[in-house]
Amino acid sequence: MPIVLKSRREIEMMRQAGRVLIPIVEKMKAACTVGATTREIDEIARVDIERAGAISPIKDYGKNLKEPGFPGYTCISINEEVVHGIPGPRKLKDGDIVKIDAAIILNGYCADTATTVVVARMPPKVQKLLDVTKQTLESAIQNIKPDKKWSDVARLIQWNVERHGFSVVREFVGHGVGRTMHEEPKVPNFVTPEQLRGDFKLKVGTTIAVEPMVVMGKREVVLLDDQWTVVTEDRQPAAHFEHTIAVTETGCEILTNGSTNGVLVA
After folding, report:
1. What average pLDDT does the structure give for the chain?
2. What is the CATH number for 227?
3. In this structure, how many other beta carbons lie within 10 angstroms of the beta carbon of residue 167?
4. Is the peptide bond before 185 cis (omega within 30 degrees of 0)?
């Protein structure tokens, strides 16, 4: 499928979705306290998404491929869970590493973001994992420019993670985003001969979700019996940060930072 370039109007619609989404995620982050359940945190998202007149493309995702579809309105993954954790009765404990992955569709356009927080106490090694993952995303965004090959950015992501002694998950990648949560192209956080065959140039109007998934140990992951939750094979912790980005004439704009006009990165 071709990459669908977005007009300025469409990018503005995605930015509006981002402005609605970010306060919801901030409320979810604030609710990540000792004793809170992941279902309660997901319920915060459900209420505010519906109040905004939006929908969650995560809820019931995959229903046509597997029954039932994803049961939560957001994905909440803890510690060694990398992505696609199912909200439920699990109570958060001191030191838990919580990944919140949320998306909405508002007026026909999508915004997608993810963040990682730690409940109460944060050991220095975990702090470094979060700092490196977040800084890697920021560095990738700073290097997004029109006519640049994505592999150049992906190579930077991989290098920055690995030089700190961490690993990039390879089974899951970023993606195009726009009218739906998942569009072309695939947006990897690493470079391999296979990924190079799907390499693409960043063009003005390209809208992508950039989302490094970084683990403290080895990069291999496994799927749990619930058929959704992905965990590290060695059960080492993971971090995940994500922004929806639009490529502009001079660089890019972050559409999921909650600002009125977006942030122009040149």
Report:
1. 95
2. 3.90.230.10
3. 21
4. yes
Q: What is the pLDDT of residue 67?
A: 66
Residue 51 has pLDDT above 50, yes or no: yes
Phi, psi of 216 (to 5 degrees): -75, -30
For residue 55, count CB atoms less than 10 angstroms from its CB and return exposed for 0-12, middle for 13-18, buried for 19 or more: middle
Residue 262 belongs to a domain: no
Domain that includes residue 202, residue range = 8-257
In Å, what is the CA distance from 153 to each residue of 35, 138, 173?
A: 40, 11, 13
Per-residue pLDDT tens for 83-119? 999 999 999 999 999 999 999 999 999 999 999 999 9
Look at strands 109-118 and 183-187 and give their pairing.
unpaired
In a domain? residue 229: yes
pLDDT tens sequence across 202-228: 999 999 999 999 999 999 999 999 999
- How far is 209 from 178, CA to CA, in rounded Å? 10
Q: Which residue has the tokens 């503005």?
A: 12
Tokens of residue 99, six digits: 């990944």
What residue spans of the chain are helical by DSSP H?
Answer: 8-30, 38-51, 124-142, 150-163, 193-197
Three-state SS at 72: coil
